[in-house]
Amino acid sequence: MIVKFYQDDQREGIHLRTIIRTGLAIGLICLGGCNNLKYQVGGTVTGLTGSGLVLENNGGDNLNVTGNGGFSFGTGVTNGDVFSVTVATEPSNPTQTCSVHNGSGTIDKAAFTHVVVTCSQAAQYAWVANQTSSDISAYAIDATTGFLTPAADSPFAANGMTPTGIAVDPNGQYAYVAYNASNTVGAYSIDSTSGALSAVGLPTATQTGPVAVTVDPTDSYVYVANQTSNSVSAYTVAAGALTEISGSPFAVGNGPVALSTDPGSNYLYVVNFTDGTVSVLAIDPTTGALSDIAGSPFGAGIGASSIAIDPTGTYAYVANTGAATISAYAIVAASGALTPVANSPFSTGSGAESVAVDPAGAHVYAANANAANEVAAYTIYPSTGALTSSGASVAAGALPISVAIDPAGTFAYVANGNSNDLSVYAIGTGTGLLSAVGGSPFATDQGPRSIAVH
């Protein structure tokens, strides 16, 4: 027999009635004064290696953060009141810069636990997926000069066939590699003192034709674009190991070849090469599952091949290789939808293969833009997201196919697919213009396809 009764409670002027069934509280009824209830505000910190990070909410309630992972403020926020999470003190030893996303809003009868705080510093290592030789090159980065030194035992043998995409988690502990020919994604632990890679178990199955991989900013989920099966495989992460999420794979457009989340891990943006579109999917913060947003997919250009989102999550840029253009969009914060900015798309003069945005959100860099085997820089108009040339492009190797920017905004790294090397450039302060660093280009193995830095 089920016994159900009620237990009244009076606290802080709030009259609550708890429904009890066989000794278990199964519900809460508010009988008055419920607008005085207070709710938790918190989220996740990633990338923290220094000490001394202090967060604050609404200009007070300071919280000392000592490591990566979940956090919550000690004082709740009353229902209907606003919250505003900011960085009160940046980390030191080493010096880092931390950014807050999803940091403000209004409490609506529930805790808010999706604040994302991402900390970064100058990159220490670079990794390259070499598709032809089926291995991964690793390098130590000189933070002053940008010079690359191969890690001992590099390149590292792949545990799958034809690595085409590589991504590093925001804490710099694991690298994930998409294997196109074996329909798998591999996980590797990263040696923090050398950048060397060690496989974490066996590769995990994807759908057919995986070509790109990304890790969400909370370091909770990994997503893989499966070009042949027109889908995205989704996984939860635990100590580098991957477990497929219920409902995965998720359908997208035809020929997905690139993907990225926004900085707040609210949406996943998937570039569909065959369709020339961008699919936008909402990320469930609790499970990592994906669902289409209204209006998705959004039009891009012929041969859409790469996407970059500015560090504030305000603008998105898509390289259209076949159309020789870059499509620029404003991101609707409330829905993740893409709205083309004025005069988009912008001509690149050549078939841009890859785009990246610098951490200041001031410039876009496009590999193989302006002319074949060159890298071009564009200035972002902050009020509109429109692009204009920053100046003369710079020479790269044969078929520059992947570009990555140092988190400190100091250097740009470009993988040259046909000349089997990396071009490294210093980024001019203010101008954003590129100049080759001493020793560039640096040799890779055969067929470098994707580069990641951390």
Description:
The protein is mostly beta strands and 454 residues long. It folds into 3 domains: 4-35, no CATH class; 37-119; 122-453, Methylamine Dehydrogenase, Chain H, CATH 2.130.10. The chain is built from no helices and 48 strands. Strands 14, 15, 16, 17 and 48 form a 5-stranded antiparallel beta sheet that branches. Strands 18, 19, 20, 21 and 22 form a 5-stranded antiparallel beta sheet that branches. Strands 23, 24, 25, 26 and 27 form a 5-stranded antiparallel beta sheet that branches. 54% of the residues are buried. Residues 1-29 have low confidence and may be disordered.
Describe the secondary-structure layout.
Layout: E1 4-11, E2 14-21, E3 24-32, E4 38-39, E5 41-46, E6 53-57, E7 60-65, E8 69-72, E9 77-78, E10 82-89, E11 97-101, E12 104-106, E13 112-120, E14 125-130, E15 135-141, E16 148-150, E17 156-157, E18 163-168, E19 174-179, E20 184-190, E21 197-199, E22 204-205, E23 210-215, E24 221-226, E25 231-238, E26 241-244, E27 250-251, E28 256-261, E29 267-272, E30 277-283, E31 290-292, E32 298-299, E33 304-309, E34 315-320, E35 325-331, E36 338-340, E37 346-347, E38 354-357, E39 363-367, E40 374-380, E41 387-389, E42 394-395, E43 400-405, E44 411-416, E45 421-427, E46 434-436, E47 442-443, E48 448-453
Parallel strand pairs: 5-13
Antiparallel strand pairs: 1-2, 2-3, 4-9, 5-8, 6-7, 6-10, 10-12, 11-13, 14-15, 14-48, 15-16, 15-17, 18-19, 19-20, 20-21, 20-22, 23-24, 24-25, 25-26, 25-27, 28-29, 29-30, 30-31, 30-32, 33-34, 34-35, 35-36, 35-37, 38-39, 39-40, 40-41, 40-42, 43-44, 44-45, 45-46, 45-47
